[in-house]
Amino acid sequence: MTLVQPSITSTTTTITNTSSSSSSKPTNTTTSTTTSSNTHHRINGSYNNPSSFRAQVRSGSFQQSTNGCCPGYIQCNLVVLHQKDAFDFLLFCQRNQQACPLIEVLNVGSFQPSMCVVSSEGKSNNATADAPAAAAAAAADLRTDLPLYRIYRHGKHVLTTHNVTNYWPTDSVAFLIGCSFSADDALLQSGIPLRSIQNRTNVPMYNTNISCQSAGKYHGNVVVSMKPIPALLVAKEVLVTSKFPLAHGPPVCIGCPQAIGIENVDKPDYGDAVEIKSDEVPVFHACGVTPQNVLCQSGVEFAITHEPGCMFVTDLKTDGSFPSPCTSYSCDAASR
To answer: Is the pTM for the entire model greater than 0.85?
Structure first.
């Protein structure tokens, strides 16, 4: 199976929200991206090996969705908060495990995962802002190893960038949260086509009317991603994704987008729209963009997140063969 990705040259633009509006909906028009005239290139070894892929991202040469990259490895959403805001968010994730399945929570000040990444010496490290020398030999650096990031201030998206080293708080607590991309390889191996990978685009994502369980200051609604699935394969899709609780598990809704507050499935709030053919059904899964929606609705003072669709790729294998200390959470749907 050969996967492909678009060749994109990105320029990142600082956007400052000067509006006094208290709207809690995340803005979706904050990145200036230039697409090269090249069409597409085949994924090479760098796109299938997590360590090599992260190095390419770190160099700034890959600034696009990680959809279809490094099949067979777990991808993660990212949330970084000040320490004072972290406990309530940890509690929020525990109460909303399908939308926010925790892969790893880093120590205060740390920017290098110690549980889901292995160094070149086969050991896990835990670099912090106080130990820059350790970062030089790090197997991964959350400040540079995601293709694009968002920065939020007081619930507003104010910046999109490919490097957050200068914005990383000394009292940071970083959360790595599971992503549905981690289940895609298993779906493809089961004969289930995935339109976004076929089209080499990001997945469509939508705000919903499904309420999360609140925790402290954090409250808001679930965000979902959508896959158009052939009607005769929907049952298989549910069976396959149910085996991946750390990738959001089974769907929260099959068909009838209006039931979860989506008025127009052709106009996603994040990502790229995809065609739904006459013999297909839209299948909606909880999405790791939920925290971004919640951060906005909660007006959190400061946060760093991934750009929707631009994930951190780990060394954890989705088949469970990587020795992982991660907890396998249940697949209970987000509270309505």
So the answer is: no
